[in-house]
Amino acid sequence: MSDILEIIKRRRSIRKFTAEPVSQEQIQALLEAAMAAPSASNRRPWEFVVINDEKRLEALRARLPFGRYNAPLAIVVCGDMRRAYPAPGRDFWICDCSAAMQNILLAATGMGLGSVWVGIYPIGLLVRAVSSLVNLPEHVIPLGVAYVGHPAETKPPRTQYDASRVHWQEFAPRAPRRRKPWWPFGKGRSKGEGTA
Amino acid sequence: MSDILEIIKRRRSIRKFTAEPVSQEQIQALLEAAMAAPSASNRRPWEFVVINDEKRLEALRARLPFGRYNAPLAIVVCGDMRRAYPAPGRDFWICDCSAAMQNILLAATGMGLGSVWVGIYPIGLLVRAVSSLVNLPEHVIPLGVAYVGHPAETKPPRTQYDASRVHWQEFAPRAPRRRKPWWPFGKGRSKGEGTA
Predict the structure, then answer these.
(1) CB contact under 8 A, A144 and B29
(2) Which residues contact A126 (CB under 8 A, 6 or more apart)?
(3) Residues B167, A49: contact at Cβ < 8 Å?
(4) Which chain A residues are Cβ-neighbours of B78 within 8 angstroms?
């Protein structure tokens, strides 16, 4: 077993950062990780806008009510609809770009950096705000923003493993599902309330 | 720098597997990795159907024209619409479940296993085929299937890094975009084709 499991659990949403910049080598490594993600039919429908200019970061924060974090680096992960899978499979771009995003977060964790994924798509207001800021053409949609920097807060590793989300061979157990009656005092309440 | 970058590049789509089963400990580790993924507002809108029964795997393969791989294990990653973010942000479930899926693939790679992500949602035909096979209720949507097993093929590590997908501070360069004329011989073709 490798330490990948440990890194996966160590990846926590970090929202406070020091002023230390992320180096060019680290940015390059993050982008290589992103573009190592799988994609439907290997279409790689992604584009990445790297923001490390403080003025533009400030403008980005101003547009993201739930993404005002002081990271020195933001990577906007975008989907290019001209490269995306055609019609009935178009939304595969969301999967592809999400896999690229998750790779960025894990690569950051592995390099000792902190990161947080701020969701943009499918919130129209946020899509328009980010698109206009970074000058996206019509066919390019921002999926989300990865803020990355040196962490100024620590969180313990964790999985949120929940056995009740795991099903074997099929979803519902074969046994008939018995619901608890919502009215715990027998049939009292329905008395006289004929439903026929 | 940790070996996470190496594992991210080593994760390739593996479609041929030996008969050796994936152990219970390995399955547990894959699910812990999956549920360590981030999700919008930490809603964890996921459910996992683990299939390692050969008959049911056979039935799954029969329903997936582009997913007939001989892995001894399939994990169907599903989104639960009752747990998903409400209306305008509903599609965040695709991001959340994709991050969980990517964690499964990377965890598998780290454990020396091979894996491949077979996309299901948003292809209606596949969604219905898988839902009926594993008995999903209406509100649970299969996003994709991770086939996992001991690899019977090897592929070299790679990133598909492409510098043309990287943009700095904003998408389009400030310089005006000059298009090559599609007709390379001057204005010849438009002569006499008045557009006024």
Answers:
(1) no
(2) A63, A64, A119, A120, A142
(3) yes
(4) 171
Give the class (CATH, top level) of A7-149.
Answer: alpha beta
d(Cα A94, Cα A79) in Å, to the nearest integer?
7
All residues at 6 or more sequence positions from B45 whose CB lies less than 8 Å from its CB, including other chains: B39, B79, B80, B81, B83, B84, B85, B92, B93, B96, B97
Q: For the beta carbon of residue B111, count every other beta carbon within 10 angstroms.
A: 21
Which residue in B124, B134, B165 is closest to A171 by CB distance? B134
Edge-to-edge strand ranges of the sheet holding A46-51? A114-119, A140-149, A73-80, A46-51, B166-168
Question: Nearest CA of chain A to the CA of B157: how many Å?
Answer: 9
Of B144, B119, B153, B191, which is closest to residue B15 (Cα–Cα)?
B153
Contacts of A124 in chain B (CB under 8 A): 88
Give the pLDDT band of residue A184 (cuts 50, 70, 90).
low
Say if CB B189 and CB B182 are below 8 A apart: no
Query: pLDDT-derived band of residue B184, with 50, 70 and 90 as boundaries?
Result: low
Residue A151: what residue type? P
The C-alpha atoms of residue A13 and residue A115 are separated, in whole angstroms, by 6
**For A108-124, how does the pLDDT look when each residue is reduced to its tens digit (9 = 90+)?**
999 999 999 999 999 99
Strand partners of residue A141 = A79
Give the gyration radius of chain B's Cα atoms. 22
For residue A14, pLDDT over 60 is answered with: yes
Instruction: Enter the tokens of residue A59.
Output: 């403008």
Task: State pTM to two decimals.
Answer: 0.89
* B28-82 pLDDT per residue, tens: 999 999 999 999 999 999 999 999 999 999 999 999 999 999 999 999 999 999 9
Would you kindly state where each structural domain of chain A is located, as residue ranges?
A: 7-149
Residue with the bigger pLDDT between A188 and A95: it is A95
* Cα–Cα distance for residue pair A18/A150, rounded to 1 Å: 6
